Amino acid sequence: IGVNCAGSAIGALASSWFADKYSRKATIQGAAIVLSIGAAICAGSVNLSMFLVARLINGVGIGALVTVIPM
């Protein structure tokens, strides 16, 4: 759970910059793609380190979406 929270913090901090630079819609689309990639890696993980990296990627996507959608 801690890895997911760390990824969420990174995604939340980075998403405001991306939303200002590229637009809110593009940031939401990019975060959804990051979340989908993380979910695919998580589903196909074969060892613990791969699973933890996938959870970090998921966290980045979730953190970005949770920050940008309510803007």
What would you note in describing this structure?
The chain has 71 residues and is mainly alpha-helical. It contains three helices and no strands. It has helices spanning 2-22, 24-43, 48-68. α1 runs antiparallel to α2. The mean pLDDT is 91.
Features:
71 residues; mainly alpha
Outline of the structure:
The chain has helices spanning 2-22, 24-43, 48-68. The chain has 71 residues and is mainly alpha-helical.
Choose one word for the global shape.
elongated
Q: Which regions have little confidence, pLDDT < 50, spanning 5+ residues?
A: none
Strand content: under 5%
Q: Give the overall average pLDDT.
A: 91
Instruction: Give the fraction of residues assigned to helices.
Output: over 70%
Number of helices: 3
What is the alpha-carbon Rg in Å? 12 Å
List SSEs in N-to-C order. HHH
Number of strands: 0
**Main sheet characteristics:** none
- Pairing-aware structural class of the strands and helices? mainly alpha
Distance between the termini: 26 Å
Question: Secondary-structure map with pairings?
Answer:
Elements (H helix, E strand, L loop, with lengths): L1 H21 L1 H20 L4 H21 L3
Helix pairs in contact: 1-2, 1-3, 2-3
